[in-house]
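Summary for the steering committee. The consortium agreed at its last meeting that each partner would contribute one worked example illustrating the joint modelling workflow. Our contribution is presented below. We chose a case with several input lines so that the handling of multiple components could be demonstrated. No manual editing was applied between input and output; the record is shown as generated.
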Amino acid sequence: MTNEAFETPNLLLALPEIWLLAMACVVLVVDLFSNDRDHGPAFWLTQVTLLGGIIITVSTQWGVDATTFSGTYVADSLGALLKIGILVLAFLGFAYSRDYMRDRGILKGEYYMLGLFAVLGMMVTVSAGNLLSLYLGVELMSLSLYALVAIDRDSSRASEAAMKYFVLGALASGMLLYGMSMLYGVTGTLDLGEITAAAAELDDRRFLFLFGLVFMMVGVAFKFGAVPFHMWVPDVYHGAPTPVTLMIATASKVAAVGLFLRLIGEGLLPLLESWQHMVVLLAVLSLLIGNTVALVQTNIKRMLAYSTFNHVGFILMGFVAGTPEGYAASVFYALTYAFTVAATFGVVLLLARKGFEADHITDLKGLNDRSPLFAFVVLILMISLTGIPGTVGFYAKWMVLKSVVEAGFVWLAVLAVIGAVVGAFYYLRLVRYCYFDKAEGEGPQPTGSGGFQAVLAANGLLVLVAGIFPGTLVAVCLAAFL
Amino acid sequence: MIEQLIFYVFALVLLFSATMVITVRNPVHAALFLVLAFFNSAVLWVMAGAEFLGIVLVLVYVGAVMVLFLFVVMMLDLNLSQLREGFMKHFYIGVPFAVVMAVQMLLVVGSGLFAPETLPEARMPIPEDVGNTALLGSVLYTVYVYPFELAAVILLVAIIAAIMLTLRRREGTRHQDPGKQVRVRKADRLRVVNIPSARRQSEQE
Amino acid sequence: MENLLLIIVLAPLAGAIIAGFFGGTIGRAGAHWVTSLSVALSCLLSFHVLLGLISGDRQPFDGTVYNWMVAGGIQFQVGFLVDRLTAMMMVVVTFVSLMVHIYTIGYMADEEHNWPKDSLAGVNAYQRFFSYIALFTFAMLMLVMSNNFLQLFFAWEAVGLVSYLLIGFWMNRPTAVFANLKAFLVNRVGDFGFLLGIGVVLLFYGSLNYSEVFATAAANPDLTMSIFGGAEWQVATVAGILLFIGAMGKSAQVPLHVWLPDSMEGPTPISALIHAATMVTAGIFMVARMSPIYELSAVALSFILVIGAITALFMGLVGLVQNDIKRVVAYSTLSQLGYMVVALGVSAYAAGVYHLMTHAFFKALLFLGAGSVIIAMHHKQDMREMGGLKKYMPVTYWTMLIGTLALIGFPAFSGYFSKDGIILAVAESQRAGATFAYLCVLAGVFVTALYSFRLLFLVFHGEGRMDRHTREHLHESPLVVTIPLILLAIPSVLIGLVTVMPMVLGDWFGDAIFVSQANDVLAAVAAKYDSAWGLVAHGFVSLPLYLAAAGFLTAWYLYVIRPDLPDQLRQRFALAYTILEKKYWFDELHLNVFAGIGRALGRFFWKVTDVGLIDGLLVNGTARTIGRVAAGLRRVQTGFLFHYAFVMIIGLLVMLTWFVFGAR
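What follows is the complete predicted structure of the assembly.
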C-alpha cells in the first residue's frame, strides 16, 4: 500500500515551526529538572527560542514562495512577515511579564511552554496551506491561550474569564469547522489553492459556498474580537493576568490577520463581492461599539479591550478593498497596533507591584514626576494610537483609509475618521493624567528589572521612530503581497 | 431496500436519543442517551463505508469519554431545580431563532445542491480491495503527516494545561510515591524479630 | 560622495544631541568641545567637497538618500543636491558656524556674571546653547543641500525653530520672549506663502524634486492657472511670488522685516551666525536655487526687485538713528539683504549669492566685534555710553575697521566687489523698476557709509562716556574672542579679489544657476571688465566710491569734529527724525492693525463658534450623547456566558439571512 501522490516533505522549509516545537519540548524538559524558583532557564531558553525563530524565519522564508508537506504548509513572505511580528511580540510579552508573574506567585514553567505552544499555533495558522492545518493551528493557539488565561488558579475572576473564553471559543471553532466542512463538501478538497481555483468557477453552488463562508466569517471574527462576536473580549482582557492579556491583544491579533488572509482574503478572493459587505458590516459595528463604550471605561485593560474593537474595525476595513495594497495596509496596521499596545501593557506591568495592579487610569496620574522617560513613552503610545499625524498610527490609519476610499466606501472612511476622533478623547486622557495631574499620594513607582525597562523604552522609542520613518515597514508590508 | 430501512431505523433512534439528551431532567439519563446516540451514529458511519470511524467512535467516545463523563456527573451532585430555572423564560426567546436557523438549514440542504451528482468527485477513489482503515493509515502518515503532528501537539498542550490547572502540591498531604514503592526492599519493611516463645503455663507455674 | 555628505550633515546633529541630552554628564568643556569639533569636521569636509568640485575631481551630486514615503504617486524623499552653489553655501555656513562656536566659548565663559541678573536661562544653559547652535548648523546644511521642496521646507522650519529658541534664550527677559514670539509669528506669515508656493509647484509641476520641477517648468514656460475667477496667471509668476513671500519672512524684507531688529535680544553670537550670516540669507539662496522658475517670470522678478530696493535704502536710513550698537548692525544687515534681493531681481543671481558670501564674512565679523565691545562694556549696548575704546581694544578696533571698510565697499575689499557688482548689474538691467532700484542702491551706498562710520566713531573714538567702574575694567577680549575676529577679517579683505572674476563675471556656478540669455546683465558687465584689478580701477572713477567717501566725511564731521551737531539736526528735522525713530511705524502697523484684527477675530471665533457652537453643541453635546449610549451598551455586557453565546448566534443568523438568503 503505497501512496503515489506523496512526496517526501522538505523539512527545511518548515524550519521555524520545527525549531519552535523542538525548543518548546526542550523547555518542558529543562524546566522539569531545574530547581530555579524563578524558572530562569525556562525564561532564557524561551527568549533564545523566539529570537532564533526570528532569525530562522527571516533567513529561510522571506522572499520564498513554496509549499511543503503535500501542500499543507506554505512558506512565503506574508507568512514570514506575520511570523516575525508574532515572535517579536511574544518576545516583548515574556520580557515584560517576568516580575509581574513572580510577584503574584504564578510564574510557572508552564507559562513559558504554553506561551511557546500558542506562538507555534499562530505560526502554523499564518503559514497554513490547507484547511486542516489552518484549523489545527487555530486550535493549538486557542487551547494554549485558554489555559494561559486560567494560569492564576486562585483568582476566581481569571477562572471565570477562562471559562467564558473556552466555551465561546469552542462555539466559534465549531462554526469555523462547520463552514470549512461546507467548503470541503462543495469543492471536494482541503487545499486552499484548489479551493481558490474552485471558487473562481462557481455557478449555482455559490449558494452553498456562501453558507459556509458566513460560518467561517463568524469563526474568524471571533478570533479578531469583532463586534458582534466580541463579547468575550472585555471580560477576558480584564480577568486574565496582564501578560496573558498582552499576548491575546497583540500576537493573536496578528495571527487572526493571517487566518483571515489565508482563509478568506486570499483563499476566497474570487468571492470578494460576497464577503466584502460582511466585512464592512463587522467593521462598522466594531467602530461604533468600540469607541462609544471605551469612553466610559476607567480600567486601562478594559479600555484597551473596547478600543481594540475600534482598531479591529480599521484592520477589517483594509480587507474590504481586496487589493494587495489594502491587505498590506491591514498587515501594517495590525503590526504597528500590536507593537504599540504591547508597550502600553508593558507600562501597566511596569507600574504594577505585588498586590497592586496599576490598571486603573488614575494610576497614571503624575507619572511624569515619577518617571519622565515612561511618561514620554506613554505620550508616544497614546498619540500613536490616536493616530495623530507624524506617528506610526497615523500612517496605518491613512493607508487603510486610502484603500477603503479607493474601493469606493467613502462613507466608511468618514465613519472611521469620526471614530478615531472620538478615540482621541480616551487616549489623550491618559496623557493628561501623566503630565498635568498630580498623583494621589505616592502613586505607583516604576518597578522591574533593568532589562525590562530597557526593552520597554526601546519598544516605545521604536514606535516613535517608526512614525518618523515608516517607509521601510510600509515597503516590507507591500512586498509581502507582491 | 433493506439497507434503506435499516438506515431510517437507526436515524430515527439517533434523532430521538439526541432530543432526549437535551430534554431529560436527569443528567445521568442524558449521558446514557448520548451513549445511545453515539452508537446509532456509529452504525450509520459503518453503513456509509467508514468502518474505521464508526469503531473509533464507539471505542473512544462510548468507551472512554462517556464513562468519564458519567463519573463527573455523579460526583458533582448537581442541583437540578436550579439548573432548570429560567429555562422557560429563555425558551421563548430561543425558539424563534432556532426555527429560523432550522429553516435556513433546510433551505440549504433542500436546495438540491447537495445531491451526489452536483458535488465533485472524490480525489482519491476508494479502491474495492482495501479497507478504509488501511487507507486512512496510508494518508495519515504521508500526505497528512503535518496536521497529524499538529494534532499530537494539541494533545500535548492539553496534557500540560490539565496538569497545570489541577495538580496542586499542598504541604502536609500524604501522597503515594510509586517510585519509592517500587524501590523498596525487603529490609526496609520487614524486620525479623526473635521473640522468645511463650512458655507453657504449666512451666510458669 | 553620499557618505561624505551624510557625515557633513550628521556630525553637527550628533554634536547637538550629545551636548543637548547629555549636557549634564559631559559638562561645559565637553559640550563646547564636542560641538566645535563636530562642526570643524563638517567644515573641513565641506572645503574638501568645494575644492573637489572646483578642481573637477568631483561631479555635482544629485540623489536621494532616503525614501520617506510615497503618497498618491508623490515621492517624499530626503536627498542631496550638491553643486558649486551648494558647496559654497556649505563652506560659508560651516566656517562661520565654526568661528561662532569658538567665539561663544569666550562670550559665554562667564555667563552667570555676564548675563543680566534677571535672565539666567536655567540649568546647563551653557551646554544647551552649544547644542542649539550645532543643531542650527545641521538644519542650515539640510536647507542648502536639499534636492527637493519638502526637505527644503522642513529645514526652513527647523532653522526658524532654532532661531526662535535662541532669540528667547534669555527666557526670563520679557523683551526676549516678545522678540522671539514676534520672529516666530512674522515668519509664519512668510511660511504660509512659502507653503502655498510649494503647493502650486506640486500641483502644476507634479513633483517636489528640484530637477524634475525645473525640467517641467522649462518645458511649459507659459503654463497658466486661474485665481479668483477668470484671471489667468502664469504659474511661474504665482509660484515665484509665493515662494518669495517665504523668503521675505526669512530674509527680513519689507514689510516682514520687523522681527530682525528685535531678534538682537538674543546673545550676540546668535546675531552673527543666524541673523546676519546664514539663516537670513536662506531666502536669497532659495531664490538663486529656483532661478529656472524665476527666469520664466518677469513679473515676479520685478516684484523682487522693488521689494529689495525699498529694503536696501529705507532700512539703512533707520540705522542712522539707532543707538544700540547691535541694532545698528542689524539694520545694516537688513539693508545689505535688500542689496542681495535687488541683485536677484535683475537676474544677477551670481552677484546676489556672491554678496551673500562676502557679507557673511564681514557681517559676522562686525557682529562678533560688537559682541566683543559688549563683553568689555559689561553687557551695555548703548553707543551713547561708549567712546574712545580704541586704545583699550586694539584688535577689536582694527578688525571692525576692516569689516566696516568691506561693508561700505572700499575698493579691493571683498564688499566692494560684491556690492559694485550689484550696482553695475542694476545699471545694465532693463527690467521694470530697475531705475528706481538703481537710485535706491546708489543712495544706499552713502547711507551705509554714514551709519557704519557713525558706529565706529561713536564707539571707538572721541571721549569715553562710560561710568568710572566700567572704565576701570575695560580690557581687550580673550583670545577665543579675538581669534575668530582675525580669522574672519582675512576673508573680509581678500576673498573678493581672488574670487570675483570667476564667481560673478565668469561661469563659475555652471548649471547651478540658470539665467536666460535676454536677462543676463552680468554678462553685459563682464564684457566691460577683464580682471579684478580692472574693476578696482574702475571703482576710483565711479560714483559709488565718492558717495561712500561723502558718507565717511559726513560721519567724521558730525561725530568727531562737531559732536554737538547731531542733536541740533535732530531738533531741526524733527519730523524726519521721528519717522526714522519710529521705523516708519511698521511695528505699530503690525501690532495694532494686523495683530489687532487677528486678535479680534480670534476672540469672536472663540466666543461664538468655539464656546457656543463647538463646545456647547458639538463636543459636549456629542460627549453627553455618547456617554448615555455607552452606559446603555455597557449594560449589555452582563457577564453571563449564555448571553454572550446568544449574541453570537444572533450575529450569525443576521449575517446568514442578510448575505446568503438576502442576496439570493
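The longest strand of chain C covers residues 61-71. The interface with chain A takes residues 66-69, 623, 626-627, 629-631, 633-634, 637, 639, 641, 643-645, 647-648, 650-652, 655-656, 658-660, 663-664 of chain C (CB under 8 Å).
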